[in-house]
Amino acid sequence: MDSVSIADGIPQNPNEERFKQLVGKFRTKYPDTQPQFLCRAPGRVNLIGEHIDYCGYSVLPMAVDQDIIAVFAANDGNEVQISNTDPIFKEGSFDIGNFSISYEKSDWFEYFKCGVQGIRDKYADRKLKGMKVLIDGTIPRSAGLSSSSALVVCAALATTINNGITISKSDLAELCAECEKYIGTQGGGMDQAASCLAHSGSAMLISFNPLKTQDVTLPVGCAFVVTHSLTEVNKAATDHFNIRVSECRLATQILTHAKGLDWRTIRKPYELQTALEWTITELEKFAIDSLHEVPYTLDEVAGLLNVSVDELISVSLKATINREQKFELCKRMKHVLSEANRVLLFKQVCDSNTHDRLETLGELMNQSHNSCSRLYECSSTELDELTDICRQSGALGSRLTGAGWGGCAVSLVRQEDLDKFIRNVRDKFYLNSNDPKRASKADQSIFPTLPGCGIYAVRL
Ligand code: NG1
């Protein structure tokens, strides 16, 4: 079992100073309490494979250096007290034996509770102890770099350690993917797996059901650069994300029914592909031939599945769905299935030795962005502009990363072009734009990133 090990003492690494400072701040914040542990969960940048984890398909992200860290100690009673070094995040407390998670608020505190709840669910027979926690985070929020999942993972990890629970990294990743759904988004598990299972120096191919990861060595001579579009989208506060999940489910159910299989049990494209023993390309062709381009209404989908709209809603959707909602089934399936193929190709190219592999990887990233923008409609004007500028500035490929509708892009750049690329993007997107916010945030909005390591914990 690849369980989370707890090292003794703060490691000598580039984070050493920040860790020590956080321990100092904990002592100031909770003067009567001796800090006992520190744990860390990184964010991730997804290199390719967007919006397909919840369809059951493999994705290819890497962990980033930006992270969430927590210093904590057991409390005598049931109370969990949490505070954050950033004063914009209000401190608070809750009873570990009795609390609920608010769908509506979707603020940092609720994400922390999600992680605790995940451990409560799995270890329902244990009486969990309260704790005092101080959090520090460096992942930009609502930027597609998984700050929310890193917080959920960090909270769950702290809860296990505080209660002497040993858990494997894979179990923790799976549990966190489930419990983050308490906040209302129906994500697929990429972020939590990347945070828990990453190895320093490698990107990773993550496959689901069962959760498996394979290290992917990125070609020598390339750099990945993250750039922030400086627009933020809180996916828990809008319904874009969950509508996409519903569209993929409904499309799968229509195709499943058309093949005479049970649409109530097959809910993800990958499950259908497996049941039919087809390749991704065969399923893609069948989807394109079977689904029309005009958006579907709930009435039409219910009619195709021979059920009432009420029954369809209860089996496949959330009760809160707007009954007038139209569903883009054909476009979404084209994106999902072509993107699933691009991920496998990206991995193959990384493993190969072809002389033009950087160009091929870049081209796959460009295709992915176009597909996200035109078929999945999860880009934004700013992200389209930013990725265009990145390509004009020397990137071999550039794409939005994470859920989209705002947030960050990731670009593949030749190592020798890196400085020039950063200068050009800085000038064109940030300094010479009419938006004063871009100019003021230029310095913190572009950074090259290397594959970082996953979670770890330290006894203080
Ligand atoms: P971010 O970028 O963290 O909002 C979300 C989902 C992922 C995945 C991507 C799109 C969660 C926690 N994360 O990521 O699972 O579906 O969108 O590829 O819901």
Written description of the protein model:
There is one protein chain. By secondary structure, the protein is α+β, with helices and mostly antiparallel strands. Among the domains are: 219 residues, Ribosomal Protein S5, domain 2 (2-Layer Sandwich); 92 residues, Up-down Bundle (de novo design (two linked rop proteins)). The protein contains 16 helices and 13 strands. The strands form 3 sheets. The protein has a 7-stranded mixed sheet, with helices on both faces. Strands 10-11-9-12 form a 4-stranded antiparallel sheet. Strands 7-8 form a two-stranded antiparallel sheet. A hairpin with a 7-residue loop joins strand 10 and strand 11. The two termini are 24 Å apart. The mean pLDDT is 95. The site of 2-acetamido-2-deoxy-1-O-phosphono-alpha-D-galactopyranose has 18 residues, from helix 3 and helix 5.
Briefly say what this structure is.
Residues 111-197 form the GHMP kinase N-terminal domain. GO terms for molecular function: ATP binding; galactokinase activity. This protein is an alpha+beta fold and 460 residues long.
CATH C-level label of one domain? Alpha Beta
The unreliable regions are none
How many helices? The count is 16
Give the fraction of residues assigned to helices.
40-55%
Largest sheet: 7 strands, mixed
Count of individual beta strands: 13
Spell out which ligands are present: 2-acetamido-2-deoxy-1-O-phosphono-alpha-D-galactopyranose
Describe the strand arrangement of the main beta sheet, using strand numbers. 1-13-2-3-6-4-5
The class by helix and strand makeup works out as: alpha+beta
The proportion of residues in beta strands is 15-25%
Mean pLDDT across the residues is: 95
Radius of gyration: 22 Å
Order of helices and strands: EHEEEEHEHHHEEEHHHHHHHHEEHHHEE
CATH topology of one domain: Ribosomal Protein S5, domain 2
* CATH architectural arrangement of one domain: 2-Layer Sandwich
Overall shape: it is globular
Cα(first) to Cα(last) distance is: 24 Å
